[in-house]
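Subject: Sanity check before I submit

Could someone independently write out the structure tokens for this chain? I want to compare against mine line by line before I put it in a report. The sequence has 144 residues.
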Amino acid sequence: MYEKYLGIEISKVNNMMKRKCKNSSALEEHEDEITRKNGWIIGYLASNRDKDIFQKDIEYNFSIRRSTVSGILQLMEKKGYVNRESVSYDARLKKLTLTEKAWEYYNKAMVKVDESETMLRNDLNDEEIETFLRILDKIKHNIE
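---
Independent answer below. Compare away.
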């Protein structure tokens, strides 16, 4: 029997972060269109804009099944956030690119991400942050 369960504590923090993000008015114009996973994908594509990113990269990096990613990307494409473009070296592959609408969302979202990150890191020193991240990596490895 444990005094505190890691899974429950992680879930509590996750719920607190979700509530905090929902109270953000800077992204209101996108709130009916963008889910958290959509935001993660937009952020991933933006961070890797100098590389060709494909559906399989999204599946791998977010640990999401192929059918789920396929549905997410189709909806994001329909809503005007991503494009699928052919690449010259393999006709079967379609790289993912962000639209102007997605870049607009990304730039606003990054302001909120930076604010959240500052709040989360408040009163933590570099050593504590490194230890926490190392422990999270171990927990992720245990789950895999």
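---
OP: Matches mine. For the report I'm noting this point. The domain at 24-116 is CATH 1.10.10.10 (Arc Repressor Mutant, subunit A).
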